[in-house]
Amino acid sequence: MTTSTEAAVNQDSTGAGRKDFAEREANGRPHTEVAAFRNVSKDFGTVKAVHGSTFTLHPGETVAFLGPNGAGKSTSIDMLLGLKDPSAGQVTLFGGTPRQAIMNGRVGVMLQSGGLLPEVTVRELVGFACKVHPRGYAVDDVLKTAQILDLADRRVDKLSGGQEQRVRFALATAGDSDLIVLDEPTTGMDVTARQAFWSVMKAQADAGRTILFATHYLEEADAIADRVLVMHKGRLIADGTAAEIKARAGQRRISFDLHPQDGGDASLLNTLPGITALDVSGHTVRIATSDADATMAAVYRVGLYPRGLEVTGVGLEQAFITITAEATAAEGN
Amino acid sequence: MSQLIRLEVLRVLRNRRYLFFTVVFPAMMFFFYATSFKNQTFDGISYKTYYMVSMATFGTLSASLNTAMRISLERKSGWTRQLRLTALPGWVYVVSKVIAAGVVTLPSVLVVFGLGAVEGVHFPASTWLGMGLAVWAGGFVFAAAGVALGYAAAPDTVQPITMVAMMAMAFLGGSWFPVTGGLKTVGQYTPVYLYNELAKYPVNGVSVGASQVVGLAAYLAVFAALAAWLYQRDRKTV
User: Fold this and answer.
1) Closest C-alpha to B200, from B178, B169, B227
2) One domain for residues A24 and A104
3) Rounded to whole angstroms, how far apart are CA atoms B236 and B56?
4) Which of A247, B106, A153 has its CA nearest to residue A167?
5) pLDDT value of residue A333
6) What is the pLDDT of residue A194?
7) Residue A88: strand, helix, or coil
8) Which residues of B touch A113 (CB under 8 A)?
9) Which residues of B touch A104 (CB under 8 A)?
């Protein structure tokens, strides 16, 4: 590890400095991995919570850990943070053990629930987190970023659910960490609160931090993440951008109207290339296709005249269902 | 670590339960005993002195075992997990709990001793100091027991166990009334009995009894070993 140069960069708490740091690492020097899972498994008795998981997180990425409850997301995060030891395989954080990385203040963590101390004020709790962080920020700055300056003197045990989440966020961003890990951060928040939360989070990503968050909200993964890791029944079944995962699941949707006065033989629709699903109701045609370009070229070639043409990608949600169904089928075989 | 100790002390002092069981309750009981027994004596010392010491040790016992409840609750709430994700070494949590228990014991001892002085208990300064030190030092035995209990089970189990253990030990240890006969045969080996004896030693002007010190040290070793083992077990299960 190139400790001396890193230390120098880490002293610089400005956003610009961090960005440089992230880019320099992304360009292939000094080391390009924030975290790595190498063939990691975790068993609880006979239950395989995580099964042969391999991935690497790179500096500056915003990565979503996506999967339904019980997919192995939380277990993976626990292993990443050194709270649980893997049954097999190797987990590294910043090239060392998770514990070393945490001792060096390189990781800020927002737990899913709990983790707050009663009988103290928000300022006392966040101030504590700032002071124990090796490169802690001033408590007022942290409170301001988390938008809880107005709650500073409230007792932690007298907060609403959404306010608690913002305090947890403040604990995760109390110091100059390179990686921020969030375990289902928006659980229990309403839509407005969620949007506000992600806009604050976005600022952290823009400052060059690497962010890993677990979620079962597909729209969050789609909107926020540069990269999505899909977990299903303990296996990592997809790893790519949201667009790539959608493409892998197939698929685009085409819809148009065919009017009788335009002529053309609607039965020819069945002969079109790339089609995975076809639905004709009245004049309206709906197609799902694995190759929208070829399908549309053929529509014109056979002499059809589509009106009101729309071509759309499927949502991540549909892609997710397709991929997990494939994974389940593959397991069955 | 000083940050965590500061936070722990603040929290305990804000806790009404703590204030009642550790400061108010022993003080009330002492006042009650002092007015009932007036100037009678037992085994060569006045009842006032006897109860002043045993109520001071009871306050310490209560503060120390309160630690059990807190550790258990904080394990459940995930605070211990959150702490493991900070740069603080793991043992700092337990050590700061024990130190905080040691610090917050002070007000209860001062209040009961102060009341004793008001009620007419007279000693040379060295005796007061000796008693204070004995009560304080002996408290660590029970702080270790508190840590062990806190890591032993979930809050709803720990609470009744703590209350029963505290009352039974105080009863056998002679905190409520001097134990004699059959009760003493059993009671004299219990930790609170040894603790009370140790705390009263300066009164008789005799040097600290070796058997009491050895006995308490043995309890400390057992409780600390138990605490260390349960703590390690907890870290493996998160």
Assistant:
1) B178
2) yes
3) 38
4) A153
5) 57
6) 85
7) strand
8) 78
9) 87
Q: Is B191 a residue whose pLDDT tops 60?
A: yes
Do residues A230 and A106 share a domain? Answer: yes
- B238: nearest CB among A78, A104, A115: A78
Tell me the H-state helices in chain A: 3-11, 15-26, 73-80, 98-103, 122-132, 139-145, 161-172, 191-206, 218-224, 242-248, 292-301, 316-332
Length of chain B: 238
Task: Give residue A268's domain range.
Answer: 251-313
Q: What is the pLDDT of residue A17?
A: 42
Name which of A305, A292, A215, A221 is nearest A259 in CA terms: A305
Question: What domain range includes position B182?
Answer: 2-237
Residue A325 lies in a domain: no
- One domain, residues A69 and A128: yes
| A62 in the same domain as A154 | yes
ipTM of the complex in this document? 0.83
Is the pLDDT confidence value at A11 over 80?
no
Please check whether residues A234 and A286 belong to one and the same domain.
no
Interface of A with B in 115-134 (CB under 8 A): 115-120, 124-125, 128-129, 131-134
- Who among A117, A118, A132 is closest to B86 (CB)? A132
pTM for the whole thing?
Answer: 0.78
A107 vs B contacts (CB less than 8 Å): 85
One domain for residues A169 and A75: yes
Q: How large is the average pLDDT for residues B84-94?
A: 88
Nearest CB among B10, B84, B87 relative to A83 is that of: B84
